[in-house]
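Researcher: First entry.
Model:
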Amino acid sequence: MLDKAQGLEADEVFLDLEDAVAADAKDQARANAIAALRDGDWSGKTVAVRVNDWSTAWTHRDVVDIVTAVGNRVDCVLLPKAESAHHVAGLDLLLTQVEKAVGLDVGRIGIEVQIESARSLLDIDAIAGASTRTEALVFGPADFMASINMRTLTVGEQPPGYDVGDAYHYALMRILVTARAHDLQAIDGPYLQVRDTAGFRRSAHSAAALGYDGKWVLHPDQIAAGNEVFSPSPEDYDRAEAILAAYDHATSDAGGRRGAVMLGDEMIDEASRKMAVVVAAKGRAAGLDRRGEP
């Protein structure tokens, strides 16, 4: 898996030392991650390591060993089960100490924080603001579902009997609003039925529609669907670029310095421009090209 991941078309790869690793295999997993980061070719990807959470005996050793050995190849540390701002602040302080000890620029390694329980969702604003290193809030659906006693065993799907609406909407929106208030990315968690690409796509569409920046994938078969879902459609991208061009012209001297104009059958103004900036930025990041002038 460590070898294969280097060639996959994912924007970010995280090497997992937490839930994917049995307790008796923690030391070996840490060594495997160090070797893969030291010897592998991870170019073109954001590289993260998910350490164990602070309730375990392994967190400090995960951070110290990984950053000491290959800190120059790690972009972010992914902190699971963050229950309070102290958990994030503690990781920040530990990263600072190790960076200083090994001669890395202090602050070069970011933090991604997983929101995985009722307690973490309740304290999410303080968690999001606990460190200037924090880059993203990530929804952890499985542990969250367990923490609120949700009656289901299928991670990512609606619980049986919940046949109207989305059982995860509140948690997803709370995470998204907090992320935007703190200028962070919002990332949806995994869909565990890795062979059910249609189910993954359905779950991804829901998060993308809210405005999430991406979603975890657990299997190579999910990557193409994820990249497609979180990229704007060509039609939406063209429309966004058309709005930006039209509004730029309308507000110029040549366009009469107008703040609200018609574009086809739709009135556009400054709010329209802000919305178009979001879609256009995603389209440009995805490498889309305009198919023609409006």
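Researcher: Second entry.
Model:
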Amino acid sequence: MRRHFDSLIVGGGIIGSSIAFQLAKRGYKVAVLEKGKVAGKASGAAAGILGTQTELTEDDPLFRMACKSRSLYRSLIPELEDLSQLHIGWRNKGTYKVAVDQDQERELKRLIERQAELEERAEWLSIEELLKREPSISSELRGAMFIPEDGQLEAKELSHAFAKASVSLGAEFFEFINVADFILQEGKVLGVKTTAGEFLADSVVVASGAWSREVLERTGLSLPIIPVKGECFSVIPESPLIQGTIFSHGCYLVPKCSGRVLVGATVKVNSFDEKVTIDGVSSLMAKAQALVPGIGKAEWDRAWAGIRPQSADGQPFLGEHPDYKGLYIATGHFRNGILLAPVTGELIADLIEGKSDQPNPFDLTRLDSWDHTGKGVLL
């Protein structure tokens, strides 16, 4: 069986669904092909932190892209909730990036100064000021950088909202369909071959997260994407422990609208193993209790793991395939897939429409100067 579309998207996570949403809004006939369930991998496992100033510290194209994406959420959330009839769990109580020692305190104060120069809001809170806002936090900390604009939401619900909103605009989603190969002819993509037959289209987007490298190898491209396993768990306290997200080296605590507190995340490089381990969870428990001692009395909820796509230089790949016209790539977002989903959807849709006339620092031309050894991996 053959099906014809304007654009095909390989991967039904947050990135693929965001691209589908943008294309469907622009009148494209779109199909999303997902080998499992929509948002069944990293998108459903993410903490949902919109950590522009929390995660990213340098004034570079990625930071500026993240700032733009965070701002897009203000109008996007009500639009998605209206179209999808899903509640995304948006919560904007800010993020506290805490210092456990004097060196970290000095570094965070320098970071606040740098971000002020970029006109991004952040302030230093002494431990006394921090305890007034978050009484459950450990008094052993030095203080925190408070970032009022870095909110958070429910990642899985957001991913489903993108998908449902896309469907309401005419997009089609196909779950449990595996892409076996691409249909390529004279330097152009014509579609894909799948376990359910051929899908033809003028453009194809590979947005398969950590599995993008495997998918793209069928085109002769060895994309330097590294799978990074992250384990998380959640608990349910009897009463609210924290209002804002607590972010530290190696651990974060995210209070959800439901009352749960999500704790993450471990980092295991080059692993597609999605099993949750005692070592992983116990290390997170110790770090979480050091930050918020009262979390030890909370009721256990559940634990899970996700596989995040990390590029060898820490930057996402967003652009056209170097050898085949009409074949686009959107992957390598690592810990910031949720944050960068809105701007990624817009950028890829612009490229497909031929509307983008600005330099793209995330395209695949940078592969030409790499030795493909993976040196310089950023975590």
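Model: Note on the second entry: The chain has a mean pLDDT of 94.
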